[in-house]
Queue: 4 jobs
Job 1
Amino acid sequence: MRAALFLALSGLAFASHISAQEATQLQIGGGQIEVAFSSSPSAMQRKLVLDWVSLAAHAVTVYYERFPADHVLIRVRFFDGRGVRAGQTFGWNGGLIKIAVGPSNTAADFARDWMMTHEMVHLAFPSVAEHHHWIEEGLSTYVESVARARAGDLTPEKAWGDLVDGLPQGLPKNADRGLDFTPTWGRTYWGGAVFCLLADVEIRKRTGNRHGLEHALRAILKAGGTIQSDWELTRALEIGDRAVGVPVLSDLYKKMKSAPAPVDLDALWKELGVKRQDGKTEFDDTAPLASIRKAITQTN
Ligand SMILES: [Zn+2]
């Protein structure tokens, strides 16, 4: 998730208490990534966490063609248990990510995690007004799996299978008033992701698959649209549209911002050639949009 500025002040207080010897600097994709632990990790824990951070940073760098912040502080604390939880990203001093990990996590536990990549994607889009929160969470939800597939960390089957399973939670329900006016969990995270997938497919359809959502997002980042900047959403969408030469983002926003705009996902999966049955994903390369599906998750 992305958190508001007042919460960032607690991060500021914390930062002053980090002992220098606990912080490790990583240089990835032109970004300086500082990893700090709230309590001393074992050598093995430190290595696993640093490998995990590096992998996520690499995936995001593959997608954006650079790490989306010049400097980010990642503050890692341990919780009693296993897995990864409580990821939060703030636009403080270049970027601050707070996240908690289980002390007994294995390399496999970290390899399964999506949250670190999700949080890093938040660095790559400007802060917009609260009622547009769906674009921030939707981008992180969608780009996370696409970026990890492109980096070779997820198979295309896993990435598409997760989208098939997750996206229905983002469809409009009764009394929906559009993405800007329906701030439920489903519409914010997965409804935003539906917007992103539709935009990605439509940009590719209208540019002969030469451009995709990533080209729009890279242009927004290049124009200074990072988490540290407060922008009007329409400004970001217009910059993205100009970069790909077709006004897909602005048009889709007009359509989805204040109306339910239902989407037939089953028809879309058929067009893209994604078949999901009994927890297994198969691809149909004879489907009309198979080349678009392949381009979205091709490894770089
Ligand atoms: Zn998020």
Job 2
Amino acid sequence: MANPKEIRVAIAGVGNCCQALLEGIEYYRQNPQDMRGLMNVEIAGYRVTDIRPVAAFDINAGKVGHDLSEAIYVAPNMAYRYPGVKVAPYGVTVQMGPVLDGNPPHLAEFVPSSQQKPCDIVDVLKQSGAEMLLNFIPTESHQAARAYADAAIKGASIGFINGMPTLIASDPEYQRAAIEHRVALIGDDVKSQLGGTAIHRALATLFCTRGVRLLQTYQINYAGNTDFANLVARGKSKHKTKQEAVTSLMPYPVIMSTGFTHVPLMKDRKTSIFWIDGANFGNAPLHLEAKLEVEDSANFAGVMVEMIRYLRLAHDRGVSGVLDSASAFLAKHPPTQIPDMQAWEQLKEFVAGKRER
Ligand SMILES: NC(=O)c1ccc[n+]([C@@H]2O[C@H](COP(=O)([O-])OP(=O)(O)OC[C@H]3O[C@@H](n4cnc5c(N)ncnc54)[C@H](O)[C@@H]3O)[C@@H](O)[C@H]2O)c1
């Protein structure tokens, strides 16, 4: 019997984040008693297992033309494998997207471009009955990101979740287009479940509330996945979303640096190092260092399953445009940055129907 709560999603970029999202959903389907690792078991009655992929786009010759259930395991994908989980065929063939700036030479070392003719994205989205498009293509693929945003928002009139740092939800043009086409938008760039940005923001907030002046800080991240190979070569927009996510919280200017290193043997396991210099009582020096190790793509997927359900709820209520509370709590670069606890309260108000967006 058809699931009336089914949330039909299309995905651009069948990389590690897509693998972790789809295999993670299967993990919860096959282990219905296990709720560990979920921010919310239900959002307005929607469970993560209500999410169903109905269309997918990539440009990798090994993925295009294959069922999505197989494509998620094609190299260079290497996300954490959920023990014992098997993903059954979806009946969704990965379509050839427009390459544009998605596969520059430093990525083409890992990703063989398919020679197939690009599909008509709008047509595929319409035929699939997708309610929203999730954008997981490589950082700095600005042209391709806009091609997908145009196709979803302006062409097929469906919702859009921007998982990467190109400014879409933060761009007034797309904000207006979303209202005009009566669809909702969340973004930009996922703030992972317990990732570098969430931790750095929490530490910075702690300095503020305890009256310790934060003088200068850096965050170094390394992993062995393709995302990191890309960030080393062209990480400009990621540096920006990461730094602004922290400095925008501070009531005074703070010097912040971010760094990315590609360490192949680490595969999808990411390390973040936080380094902060501060001035304590009477300007006495204070220094803090912390380290996080996490499965990078699973950390992303835990937030994506939230964004998808909030976007569906907005559509159920006929709400269009940027979902401010979900973007502020779950994205690194929302149109408006607010402290996480305030964003969390606003998001609860949104779910309770006390706030429009
Ligand atoms: N924790 C995280 O992993 C995390 C957190 C926040 C944001 N992000 C962002 O999510 C995005 C995806 O990350 P990932 O680790 O899955 O990267 P990935 O490199 O593993 O996957 C990207 C996929 O996009 C495909 N692609 C390239 N150009 C394309 C195009 N024009 N059309 C369709 N597909 C195209 C590639 O072939 C690949 O399959 C990145 O921009 C990353 O910065 C990731």
Job 3
Amino acid sequence: MSARRDPLRFDLAVVGGGAAGVAAALGAAACGAKVALIEAYGFLGGTATVAGVQAYCGFHTRGSRPQQVVAGVGQQALDALQALGHDVTPRPQSSGNWIILLDPERLKRALDGLVLAARVEPLLHCRAVAVQAQGGRIDSLLCADPQGLFEVRAAQWVDATGNANLAALAWPERMRPRRQAATLTARLSGLDTACAYDRDDLRRAALDYEQRTGTPLARANGGYFVPLPWSDACWAMMVDVELADASTQSLTQAEMQARAIAHDYLLSLRRCVPGFAHARLDVTGPALGVRATWHIGSQQDALLDDLLHARRHLDGIARSGWPGELHPRAGVTEYRPIAGDDWFHVRYGALQPDAHGNLWLAGSSIGADDAAFGSVRVMGCAFATGHAAGVAAALSSFACRAPLQAVQQALIEQGALL
Ligand SMILES: Cc1cc2nc3c(=O)[nH]c(=O)nc-3n(C[C@H](O)[C@H](O)[C@H](O)COP(=O)(O)OP(=O)(O)OC[C@H]3O[C@@H](n4cnc5c(N)ncnc54)[C@H](O)[C@@H]3O)c2cc1C
């Protein structure tokens, strides 16, 4: 298969337009690089807009005295949201964690504004489909849009695909499985917000669903519902499904199964939960939320030990302040707390699949063991590791990766918290 159009050339190409990709692109552009930001969907935001995950986690540490641990491009995104009238005040959860609620439509607009102002070239509706690689280096990328195939060439590359998909195109033999349940999010509207409901009501709804359909709801506790205070709606995570891999067949089956459950379960919510009698299913997804199906090792993976002991490292390039949140099976969530509700450092080597290559890992694609992955994957930390990957890529030359100190210095100058 080959491309029929002239190649597009950049200093650096970022694949994936989520928190990590936007941060990488902006960080690199601020260093003077000519940057492409390649995104399969027609908008930026990644899981927040593609899969309707309506909260940024990881901007703050847990507990009664939250500390902000992510700034830099992440802060620029919050400021841009605020400028559009969206309240970005962190909100405490019963778990002790703090989240920043999102409105996906305002987020899309805020991120468009940021990348255009930074003179990044966004390439939307553009899917990376094949890579030409030699050793640890990527030479060019084949992309597909509705008109066909075309080539992108760049000296440096950032994998911000959320699932290390670019690394997988280059080195499929190096990928290791990482199974995490997938979740179809939903937004339910038409709620009577004056009506209080509790866990017992939700458990009753889950039981009602099981009795009507003969199949238990994976989230036996009835799900996680977050009121969206600017509306009569809530953001719901109520449908978990197992996802074997990221093949078309597995994704098709999981998407359709999850949608059927969402529609059926709405009937049980209407019957059993006060305030939900007239609930409507406004939107699912749009796409299934995929946490991970595989990963690639790095020079210095983030580790459970870093998390458990809130370790600081001299080669730290980002802070992670979210506990290790794992979804080993559909319906099951487990937490590994960070010592003292503090934060730990993500190390420079976690961004590098090879010591001397030209691919950088960002966001939930960075090197991490399963427990640390549960922490570093959230979007607050994805902004921070994406920012670091973009700066490091922009400061690297063909011959060698940028020295750590230069990357740390540039990140600090761009407002990042190290
Ligand atoms: C169901 C669910 C709930 C979650 N809840 C939260 C939460 O409440 N708060 C939180 O902070 N985090 C949450 N997370 C984790 C978080 O959303 C992700 O780990 C995070 O978005 C990772 O950011 P990222 O920028 O690395 O990747 P993503 O946000 O996944 O963005 C990757 C982007 O790359 C694009 N892409 C992928 N492959 C290609 C390709 N070949 N070509 C072109 N584009 C491509 C995708 O379309 C996507 O836009 C949740 C995740 C899931 C799945």
Job 4
Amino acid sequence: MSIKKYRFILFDLDETLFDFRKSEAVALSKAFELYHLTIDDDIVKVYNDLNFSLWKKLEDKKITKDVLVVERFNLLFEQYNIDLDPAAFEDDYQRILSEQAYLMEGAMDICRYLKRKYDLYSISNGVAFTQHNRMRLSGLKVFLSGHFVSEEVGYAKPDIRFFKHVSQAIPSFQKEKALVVGDSQSSDIQGANNAGIDVCWYNYRGETLQEGLSVNYCINHLRSLKKIL
Ligand SMILES: [Mg+2]
């Protein structure tokens, strides 16, 4: 059942179409291997916590992406007394990460289904080179009409200027006919709310919606999009 007539579907990438957690875990382990280091669950947990808090700072515009990507390894290596250049490690990690293109369950199927009826675009705060490469390797690229990565746009979700750029770049775009699909409250839902665009929350983690945010639809599996679209 189609509830509202949409034309443009704006998909977040990490943890919405891409299984970023899996890609990240594999890339981290391979990067450590490259430097003849062993990684354990403890290091992964610390890395995830450091990375998460730095991404929050990025969303709050307290740091830049360039600082974030190096600082996470700088802090990690400090904590474990690892004598490595964090910038060089980040370069290797990013290259390896760009080669990991694991998808969320149902991602390929839902893109194939939606492509017949809608114009699909990606909207991502990830690193441009990595996202483009993973898009190509994953096989999703053929379903998407365009890609918007914050690094290239100049602004990141939830900044309204990111969505203004997207609105202006998509031919015949009307925000009333657009739907954002994403997992993140702070970037996707906040961003869609800021821009006045409908949003479907892919809440597969079963989070509680923060006060002040609103969603039009909520799903816990990508296949449920077929009931909405
Ligand atoms: Mg995401």
